[in-house]
Amino acid sequence: MNKSQISPINNIWLFMIILATVVAAYNGKMTEITEASFEGAENAVTLAIGLIGSMALWLGIISIVEAAGGMKIIARFIYPLMVKLFPDIPPSHPAMSAIILNIAANALGLGNAATPMGLKAMTEMDKLNPEKGTATDSMCLFLAINTSSVTLIPIGVITIRASAGVTNPGDIILPTFIATCCSTIAAIIAAKFLASKQTMPSLNQSISPEYLEENNLINGEEKSSELAPPGKISKLVFASLIGAFLGAVIYHLNLQGISYIFSLNFLESLSNWLLPILICSFLLFGYFRGVKVYETMTEGAKDGFEVAVRIIPFMVAIFVAIGMFRASGALDILAAILSPITNLIGIPVEALPMALIRPLSGSGAFGIMSEIVTNKPSSFLSYLVSTMQGSTETTFYVLAVYFGSVGIKKTRYALPAALFADAVGILTSVIMCRIFF
Fold it and tell me: Where are the domains of the chain?
């Protein structure tokens, strides 16, 4: 890793520990921060182990969606919009297809597929770049959209809330969706506005038709897969179950009355129903498409253990730092200093580290969110940081990895546009949480 790719979380993490130690020395709380460091490490490992089951479930379900061709369906659905957003890229160029598949994978929470497709998109866009080493308008817009976190289902956050014992872990889906939509719109507006203030040579579109046809990911040949469509009897059985469920929905609405749909209680009920509906929808989608749902589920679930193990070091580090920071009294001092500002915009001071670290480090922000949810699972603070985590992205990491992959040194307005989207996402999260909590 070169120096430009070193995460700023290094300095922030070290600063928190050193500051906590200094403050504890003045407050006479050295014993407390020592105990907090060991307790934080233990809680991090315990939580990570508890995540294995939930992560295995969701990674297995997402594998079914991928095997059934769900990503390509979503890609084709948003294709017309992408052509308008990226007018400098030829519609049939492989860069366009990679961008679409990256966004589709991000929306499904399929990070393992999203990053490779994002890197491919950058590579293909760089082939059209008239100034190597300088980000084009399309690159800046693509990075801004990526860092705005287009997310339909915040899988990781939901699994953390479930592991912490939250009664309805999926209740953040709706506020997160609204917040991420607002941050994405803000990213597009900011990128387009900043692009209008700067000039960039036209992209080279002299690409051969053979090259376009060979590399087109949307309209090209589908990769063969072993699909086994169900028989008529099986289709009839599951279609009947779907019909029975719709009947239950109609029956429930009739009991409550039509006015119930426009009430706040309906929104609460929708959160309770949404997660099971999504799970069943994904499974049935794969089943009717011919995917061997059980085999695919178990194969995808194997990654759950690896994911849970990989995040243990990050969670231990951040749990220890936060625990020491709190036990030393440093957080109380920070709260006193920032309380006028945080009270003005409605953000609890304990959520401020989350808002500051989220653009810098995904693992660091995930650790903060996990620590808060574990300690205060049913609190407004837990609800807020969960929504923030699901509706924002690690801006500096994404820019470093994606731009670094093609040797971009002049990022132009990509960072300001991305940070503006982060700010909009955080503020929208606060507003939505105040409404829904």
Answer: 3-222+301-436, 230-288
